[in-house]
Amino acid sequence: MLKVYLDSSAIVKRYISEPGSSTVDYVFDKGWAGEVSIVASIWNIGEVLGVLDERRERKWLSESEFMKALGSFVSETLRLLRLRILEIYPLLTSILVGAWPLILKEHIFEADTLQIQTCIYSDANMLLSRPRLWHSFLQT
């Protein structure tokens, strides 16, 4: 089965309508249909919560929009986990250490290198990320 790794920016697009949301919705629809497995890192959970909170604090989301997005994120995540459609990988020491060379060689932020390394560790077939995609790293 195809495994699609979603980084935090992709996950946010599921719960906040913005450019790219339709692509993420398509992946989730395929997941619900049993055609793909969705993969993420436990790191993503905290990042998604942080993004939602920041948008609320900046008044980009009203309190009701924030609560709706948060509730949808939590409930859908729990349902997907129970149905084994979603796999959440822990932040392992080996993943963290594997990220360090990318930081130094490619000058990539640690959060991004953790996404790349977790994607590789999970054997995902695809990484869905913000516009700056990491295909070259996944083909090594």
Q: How would you sum up this structure, described in words?
A:
The chain has 140 residues and is α/β, with parallel strands linked by helices. It has a single domain (2-91, 124-138), classed as 5'-nuclease (Rossmann fold), CATH 3.40.50. It is 61% helix and 13% strand. The chain contains seven helices and four strands. It has a four-stranded parallel β-sheet with strand order 3-2-1-4, sandwiched between helices. It is globular, with a radius of gyration of 15 Å. The chain starts with a strand and ends with a helix. The model is unreliable at 133-140 (pLDDT under 50).
Keywords:
alpha/beta; Rossmann fold; 61% helix
SSE arrangement:
Blueprint: E1 2-6, H1 8-15, H2 21-32, E2 36-41, H3 42-57, H4 63-82, E3 86-89, H5 93-106, H6 110-121, E4 126-128, H7 135-138
Parallel strand pairs: 1-2, 1-4, 2-3
Could you tell me the radius of gyration in angstroms? 15 Å
CATH architecture group name: 3-Layer(aba) Sandwich
Mean pLDDT value: 91
Named CATH topology: Rossmann fold
| CATH level 4 superfamily | 5'-nuclease
Q: What's the overall geometry?
A: globular
Report the portion of residues in β strands.
5-15%
Share of helical residues: 55-70%
How widely separated are the two ends?
21 Å
Query: What is the domain tally?
Result: 1
Q: Give the beta-strand count.
A: 4
Briefly note the structural class of the backbone: alpha/beta
Strand order of the largest sheet: 3-2-1-4
CATH class: Alpha Beta
